[in-house]
Amino acid sequence: MTHPDQASQPYHLLGGEAIVRRVVDRFYDLMDSDPRAAAIRAMHPADLTSSRDKLFMFLSGWLGGPSLYMERYGHPMLRARHLPFAIDESARDAWLICMYQALDETPMEQALRDHLEEALFRTADFMRNQ
Hints:
Globin-like; 9 helices
């Protein structure tokens, strides 16, 4: 049973685990195939399985669902985990192109879409270190 407060969280508004997984998989499929994302694709291992799982676990908690990432790995420490990679505006924008496209392909209310785009932009922009 879903707690009333949870029902208003983006995780549940999107449709829960299956939809978050689908967004993550589509994001990585796009990153793997879109030439505009070549620079950020190069920052990832050849096999994206672990990357897919980690982003899924992170987004689950970030969106207000189960805190899967924290349960397995502890606090995400996003900025620290991304410091080894040269992330500039171009890399940020490439990441956002793929994520926004994955969201474009996911049915949702416009207000939720606007909220997610703004929150994802702030998070991606915070990862910049160049």
